[in-house]
Amino acid sequence: xxxxxxxxxxxxxxxxxxxxxxSRFIVIALLVAILCGISGTVFKESVSLLTTFFxxxxxxxxxxxxxxxNFAYVILPVIGAAITSPFxxxxxxxxxGGGIGAVLESVTFERAKIQARVWPAKLIASAITxxxxxxxxxxxxxxxxxxxxSSYVAGLFHLTPNEKRALVxxxxxxxxxxxxxxxxxxxxxxxxLLFPTLDxxxxxxxxxxxxxxxxxxxxLPQQVLGFSLISFPTSYTLGEYGLFAVFGVAIGLLxxxxxxxxxxxxKGFIKTKLPLVLLPVVGAALTGLLIAFLPxxxxxxxxxxxxxxxxxxxxxxxxxxxxxFCKMLSTASTVASGNSGGLFFPSVYIGGMFGGGFAxxxxxxxxxxxxxxxxxxxxxxxxxxxxxxxxxxxxxVILLELSRNFLVVIPLxxxxxxxxxxxxxxxxxxLVYTSGHAMARVRNYTLSALMSFRVESDSIDIxxxxxxxxxxxxxxxxxxxxxxxxxxxxxxxxxxxxxxxxSFKKLDExxxxxTSVQAIMDTDFPxxxxxxxxxxxxxxxxxxxxxxVEQECYPNQYLGIFLKDKFIQLKHLPVPYM
Length: 578
Hints:
Helix content: 55-70%
Shape: elongated
Number of strands: 7
Radius of gyration: 27 Å
Order of helices and strands: HEEHHHHHHHHHHHHHHHHHEEHEHEEH
Distance between the termini: 49 Å
CATH class of the largest domain: Mainly Alpha
Oligomer: single chain
Structural class: mainly alpha
Number of domains: 3
Strand content: 5-15%
CATH architecture of the largest domain: Orthogonal Bundle
Strand order of the largest sheet: 5-6-7
CATH topology of the largest domain: Clc chloride channel
Number of helices: 21
């Protein structure tokens, strides 16, 4: 066999292996899609049943009128919070709040490892929160629960970190598609949010999973936002496009306010120093007060029916704006206090109400310009969410699918991109999902940056190193003065091992003085090349918290050490492609 034939055979073998692994991954993704599609469908039905119980059965029994004010609207969310708060703190603390920030943190820095018990805990807690009137949406619970289910299955099949990330995107796409019946939009949204790549290897399974989830979701009646009820014009004038641009700026500013408000609410609840178990109850009570003052307008839950009514019947400008700001306050009170629920539907409601308000103002200021209030509600919903979540493409496609009208694509894109850009500049890439949290370090571009950039000098730490011939007591003296998880052992510029806290426990301290480091050093340790991406390096560090960095062209030649915790605390990463 010639050298050329041998090379060709090797290429064919590698191609076959890649095809086999891809096929295997697709089968796993379809399994996850079925699990998450069923989860999403069951969750949606559970919310509907619990809403009927709380508002159809329990509300009439506990009604307490004080004038026109029904105090029972305050009691219902409090009951829900009193049930879920102890449950969350006991079984899965990470399901507190929206949940998407925790998923982003896991996907970005923890190799997509999410505890399996998050799956049922998130769905149960969120269904009770939303059913009892908490101002929250279903997408956050679905994303976190689907992420947990996907991570669990990925562990069973020993997938690589990037395959785990892609499988989480598959599960999320399927779960959301079961709710929205928008397979294309939620597929794009899942990748945009969790795994920003156009690699064919990952894109195809994500869209297949979204299709499966959508088919499962269609087993129940679909009632998702009434954007298809809007009477859309067949064309738009230049005057309207000018107003859409102005509207985009205004929505971008309002989205920035929402990001800051939510972050301030999160920090404010923590600063009260009340027991964690009481914070959701306090937040629920505040939400209940707003519901009691504005009953029937969608302040409770995700607000879908309130938005649908606004599209069908219209509202005065002052009420549109009042509902938008009250939904901000109620959602911040519910989710930022620790109640379990999502921010997507509330954000869509807020943006839609602002859209209706601006449409009413524009009709007065520019009577010669044809203003369609329904179009402004739709565009406001999409642009506001895109700006606050920093996810402009997926939401655009979702709304196009839900509205069943593609003639609105240019006004929608124009307004969305302007709003996205304004909020991105003002919030510096911070998402509403992570605003106010320690997770605020996860920006909309963090994962892309980790995938794009190599290990550079500013991400490599120079720490004291030991020689294999040093005595253990000398090495321990150096190690104990540094707050590092491991200290490299270097001989003639080549790394031969590492010392960690566990290394020093291998030998009795009385023998350290006359024993060399070589006797206790670990020779199996995480290592990367200087040409590896930051994401590969973070993955290699894993649970150990470090990875030794070696020169690319000279195997084992020591360059420095990557300290994961220190790197994660960096406030800014460079924006990829800029």
